[in-house]
């Protein structure tokens, strides 16, 4: 209780009570007005937030659709022994698929990114010894997809990645399947060989017979 009430005496209690009642009434009115104003502000803020979220969602959707529209899929045909339809240059994010037109040979699309300071052509690189070529391709393939004889993209077998090249640079494309290897035997061996090359009967790798190429990925 306010100590001033004792100092002013009993007579002071009446005007204080009336004043207090008026203050409470005014306070209630002002509180109602403040509450209405607060509710209005909150409603406006909520509406603006909802509109902002809707705009952000629409923007994200539009961006995703634009990115998907910009992404390109390139279909390459594997023949005995070479690649047809392999472009010289593609944009980063391009996905490659493989059609195998061979009646008997399993083929693959293996893409290695070549070091930026390496200027030799794909043909020159494929003629290097394993000891010379190994260090250049030490980072491993960016993607590996296989296609059994007479199959198309729907039957592609992804071994590394899904055929998409995302990092700009120059890539050497090779097929390392042994010539004459049984497709089923090779795939069965590949399923259990881990990171090692499948050990199956066959001749020299297909790239020795000319199944290689190169593509440059730009930003």
Give a structural overview.
- The protein is an alpha+beta fold.
- The chain folds into two domains: 4-69; 73-218, Cupredoxins -  blue copper proteins (Immunoglobulin-like, Sandwich).
- The protein is built from five helices and ten strands; from the N terminus they run ααβββββααββββαβ.
- It has helices spanning 4-8, 13-70, 122-126, 130-136, 183-190; strands spanning 73-79, 82-84, 89-91, 94-100, 107-113, 143-147, 157-160, 164-165, 169-174, 212-218.
- It has a six-stranded mixed β-sheet.
- A hairpin with a 2-residue loop joins strand 1 and strand 2.
- The longest helix has 58 residues, at 13-70.
- The protein is globular, with a radius of gyration of 37 Å.
- The protein starts with a helix and ends with a strand.
Summarize the structure.
The protein is an alpha+beta fold and 219 residues long. The chain is built from 5 helices and 10 strands, in the order H-H-E-E-E-E-E-H-H-E-E-E-E-H-E. The strands form 2 sheets. It has a 6-stranded mixed beta sheet.
Spell out the CATH superfamily of the largest domain.
Cupredoxins -  blue copper proteins
Q: Into how many domains do the coordinates divide?
A: 2
Q: How far is the N terminus from the C terminus? A: 77 Å
Strand order of the largest sheet: 3-10-9-5-6-7
Order of helices and strands: HHEEEEEHHEEEEHE
């Amino acid at each position: 209780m306010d100590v001033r009430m004792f100092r002013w005496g009993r007579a002071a209690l009446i005007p204080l009570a009336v004043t207090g009642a008026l203050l409470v009434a005014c306070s209630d009115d002002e509180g109602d007005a403040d509450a209405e104003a607060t509710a209005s502000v909150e409603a406006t803020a909520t509406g603006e937030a909802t509109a902002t979220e809707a705009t952000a969602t629409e923007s994200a959707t539009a961006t995703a659709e634009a990115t998907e529209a910009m992404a390109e899929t390139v279909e390459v045909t594997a023949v005995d022994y070479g690649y047809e339809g392999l472009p010289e240059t593609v944009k980063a994010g391009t996905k490659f698929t493989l059609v195998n037109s061979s009646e008997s040979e399993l083929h693959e699309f293996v893409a290695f990114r070549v070091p930026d300071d390496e200027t030799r052509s794909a043909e020159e690189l494929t003629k290097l010894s394993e000891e010379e070529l190994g260090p250049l391709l030490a980072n491993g393939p960016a993607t590996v997809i296989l296609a059994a004889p007479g199959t198309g993209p729907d039957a592609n077998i992804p071994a590394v990645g899904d055929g998409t090249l995302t990092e700009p640079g120059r890539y050497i494309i090779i097929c390392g399947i042994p010539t004459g290897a049984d497709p089923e035997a090779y795939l069965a061996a590949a399923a259990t060989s881990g990171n090692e090359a499948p050990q199956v009967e066959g001749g020299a790798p297909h790239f020795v017979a000319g199944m290689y190429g190169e593509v440059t990925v730009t930003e």
